[in-house]
C-alpha cells in the first residue's frame, strides 16, 4: 500500500499515468537499512508537456530516491546517505560524498509546484538527522482526512495538544484514552482508541516507547506551521538547533526560560563541569544526558 505522501503526490500532481507495484529492488545483503529492502517502483508515463519537462530535468537517480521516499515517508540521515549512494550507483551517476542536500535540493525544485518537499529535521529522541517527504499545501490536520475519520483526526488534535501542554513532551496512553471521552464527533471505544494509536505509530505520526507517546519527526516537520499557529504562546524553538522543542530541558531563570533539546544539551554541555545557560549565563541545574 502506498504511503500518505505518495498518494498526496499523485493527487496533487495529476501529471502522470501511473502503474504502481512493489518490487524487491535492493537485496538485503547489499542494503543495511531494512526499511529499504523493498522499494516502491513507479512507471511514469507523461501525458503533458509539463511532465515531460520534469522527466528531462530530473535524472533517474533523483527519481529513484523520490520514489523510495514516497514509500517510507521519513528516513534517518544514515539511511538517506546510503540511499543517495545506491541510487547514484544504480544509474551510473557520479556520487559526490557530502552532497546529499544538493541532490535533494534538485528534487525539491521539482516538488515545489506540487506543494511537496523533502525536509530535513532532527529526531528529538536520538538527535539524529532525519529527512521526511511532506505536504506543504495545507497547514491543518485536515490534510490527513483521506486516511483518517473525523473522530480520529479530532483525537489526534487532542493528542498533539496534550504533548504541547506536557512538561516532558511525552504523554501516556491513559492520557489519550481519557481525552477520547471528550470527543465532540463520534465517540470511540477504548479498543478503537488503542487501534488508532497503533496506526498513528505505524504511519509515523507518533513514536511509542514503553507506553509513552511523543510526536514523531515526521509529525513535527509536517505539522510545524499548524502547531505554531494553534499553540503560539506555548511552543518554543531549541536555542541550539532552532527546531521546535518538546522533549527538552528549560532554563530555570524565569527571565530566560530557553529550551534546549535533550540531544543538544548532551552535545553543548559535553565534558563541562559547570554548564551554564548559553543565553543568560545562569548555572544549568539539569542532569546532562
From TrEMBL:
GO biological process: double-strand break repair via homologous recombination
Catalytically driven reaction(s): S-ubiquitinyl-[E2 ubiquitin-conjugating enzyme]-L-cysteine + [acceptor protein]-L-lysine = [E2 ubiquitin-conjugating enzyme]-L-cysteine + N(6)-ubiquitinyl-[acceptor protein]-L-lysine
Subcellular location: Chromosome, Telomere; Nucleus
Key words of the record: Chromosome, DNA damage, DNA recombination, DNA repair, Metal-binding, Nucleus, Signal, Telomere, Transferase, Ubl conjugation pathway, Zinc, Zinc-finger
Residues spanning the signal sequence: 1-25
Domain spans labelled Non-structural maintenance of chromosomes element 1 RING C4HC3-type: 238-280
Gene3D superfamilies recorded: 3.90.1150.220, Winged helix-like DNA-binding domain superfamily/Winged helix DNA-binding domain (1.10.10.10), Zinc/RING finger domain, C3HC4 (zinc finger) (3.30.40.10)
GO cellular component: chromosome, telomeric region; nucleus; Smc5-Smc6 complex
First-listed, main subcellular location of the protein, grouped into a coarse class: nucleus
An MF annotation (GO) of this entry: zinc ion binding
EC number: 2.3.2.27
Pfam families reported in the protein's UniProt record: SMC_Nse1, zf-RING-like
Protein role: RING-type zinc finger-containing E3 ubiquitin ligase that assembles with melanoma antigen protein (MAGE) to catalyze the direct transfer of ubiquitin from E2 ubiquitin-conjugating enzyme to a specific substrate. Involved in maintenance of genome integrity, DNA damage response and DNA repair.
Family statement drawn from the similarity comment of this UniProt entry: Belongs to the NSE1 family.
Oligomeric form and interacting partners: Component of the Smc5-Smc6 complex.
PANTHER family: NON-SMC ELEMENT 1-RELATED (PTHR20973), NON-STRUCTURAL MAINTENANCE OF CHROMOSOMES ELEMENT 1 HOMOLOG (PTHR20973:SF0)
Protein name in the entry: Non-structural maintenance of chromosomes element 1 homolog
Organism for this UniProt entry: Takifugu rubripes (Japanese pufferfish)
High-level lineage: Eukaryota, Metazoa, Chordata, Craniata, Vertebrata
Gene: nsmce1
